[in-house]
Amino acid sequence: MRLALMATLLAGFAAPASAQIEDDGARMERVADGVYAIIHANATDEWPHGNTGVIVGSDGVLVVDACYLPSRARADIALIRRVTHRPVRYLVYTHWHFDHNNGASEYVAAWPGVQIVSERETGDWIPLNATYWSRYSTRPDSPRRAALAALEREVTTGADSAGNPLTAEQRRMKATAVAQRKAELAELATLKPMTPTMRFDGALTLDVGRQVVLRDRARANSPHDVTIWLPADSILFTGDIVVQSPLPFVGASSPVPWIRVLEDLEHEPARAVVPGHGPVMHDMSYVRQVRALLEAATAAARQAALDGHPLDWLQDSVRLDEVRRATPAWRDPSLDEDWRDTIRALMERAWRGCAGRVERGRAGERASGRAGGPGMHAHPSSRAERGTLPGNVSNHSEQGPSLRSG
Ligand SMILES: [Zn+2]
Ligand SMILES: [Zn+2]
């Protein structure tokens, strides 16, 4: 269903033919002269690709993020070459989450002189994307391999795990998912994460014959989220500070400081906003809605802490439906379950912000990873396999740093 939504999304933002280039897994949308956003279909039924930004200057190209799988990054490079023959001089990471940088090795292969740029601490987290995350997925006894085997059995037998027959459509979709996940695991098995060659603190201005301003916004979706601003064009790339997929990714987030970050973004005089996932935006209405969601969540968590309620109570009783109703992108009834999961994850993160810690009760075990790590978001379309993904399985958190979903 999520893939169907994504297909609708891809079709629904059709611009004039001259304004975009497509292949079968992405569309490259022209945001301004020489500025593009590559919006990808999901890599699998479980994981998305982050958006990729392409900024073409007279002296070369700056690329924002390198998506989840190297095969997709290779296809993106082919798209980039359709709009410019200039070399990619800089690849900037908005944050450390692997759906934004696993593909970096393809940029290095295509342009060996490319500088990979990140905020300083983000650079330290990049090796985790291979040493922990990929190994976790690809080892022979991994939960992800077990889930894939189960899915493959369903396709072969034509019945789900309870023995109920699959419809032809269900069987076809599951077969597609099996093929995608096999290809994904094969790529992860040989993944080469690219650590940055250039790190910065605070802010950095790069020049490709066009000024590009990088700014660390610190804690929001990850420990350090960097925005990319084009002053001459008033275009803002936000990384996962802003995600419309169609819901935000909240599971590894820090809601309290994130609110202030969104407020700051709302004051940028941007005429286009390219989010970390989802369509290019032309006003701040969605950004304001994400802030409203976080404000409602932190207020509810604060009140629950004051009233002496535990986290379980908070997660079971708070729904934030009024914020959902106010946001067109979130209203679709097909998102009901994702919304519930998102709010549960968000309440846990908001709770940390108020109470400082999460008790290790029933809900705490279900919802939390180890505190203090960098965190990772799992793709919310994974609910069919919930409990099989590393990002969703808190009882695996002892094996790695703060594996978080949402
Ligand atoms: Zn992401
Ligand atoms: Zn992220």
Explain this structure.
The protein is an alpha/beta fold and 406 residues long. It folds into 3 domains: 2-125 and 192-284, Metallo-beta-lactamase, Chain A, CATH 3.60.15.10; 130-189; 288-399, no CATH class. The protein is built from 13 helices and 13 strands. It has helices at residues 2-12, 70-83, 104-110, 120-125, 128-138, 143-157, 168-189, 255-266, 285-307, 311-317, 321-325, 336-355, 362-367, and strands at 20-23, 26-32, 35-40, 52-57, 60-64, 88-92, 115-119, 198-200, 203-207, 211-216, 226-230, 235-237, 272-274. The strands form 2 sheets. The protein has an 8-stranded mixed β-sheet. Strands 9-10-11-12-13 form a 5-stranded mixed β-sheet, with no helix packed on it. Strand 1 (20-23) and strand 2 form a beta hairpin. The longest helix is centred in the last third of the chain and has 23 residues, at 285-307. The structure holds zinc ion (2 copies). Residues 95, 97, 221-222, 240, 249, 377 line the site of one zinc ion.
- Remind me, CATH topology of the largest domain? Metallo-beta-lactamase, Chain A
Known CATH architecture of the largest domain: 4-Layer Sandwich
Number of helices: 13
Could you name the ranges where pLDDT drops below 50 across 5 or more consecutive residues? 1-17, 361-374, 378-406
Q: What's the CATH H-level homologous superfamily of the largest domain?
A: Ribonuclease Z/Hydroxyacylglutathione hydrolase-like
Query: How many E strands?
Result: 13
What is the helix content? 25-40%
Beta-strand content bin: 15-25%
Largest sheet: 8 strands, mixed
Q: How far apart lie the N and C ends?
A: 18 Å
Q: Rounded to an integer, what's the Rg over CA atoms?
A: 20 Å
- The coarse silhouette is globular
How many domain modules? 3
Mean pLDDT, nearest integer?
A: 86
> Order of strands in the sheet with the most strands?
1-2-3-4-5-6-7-8
Q: What is the oligomeric state here?
A: single chain
Text of the CATH class of the largest domain: Alpha Beta
Query: What is bound: which ligands?
Result: zinc ion
SSE string, helices as H and strands as E? HEEEEEHEHEHHHHEEEEEHEHHHHH
**Class from helix and strand fractions:** alpha/beta
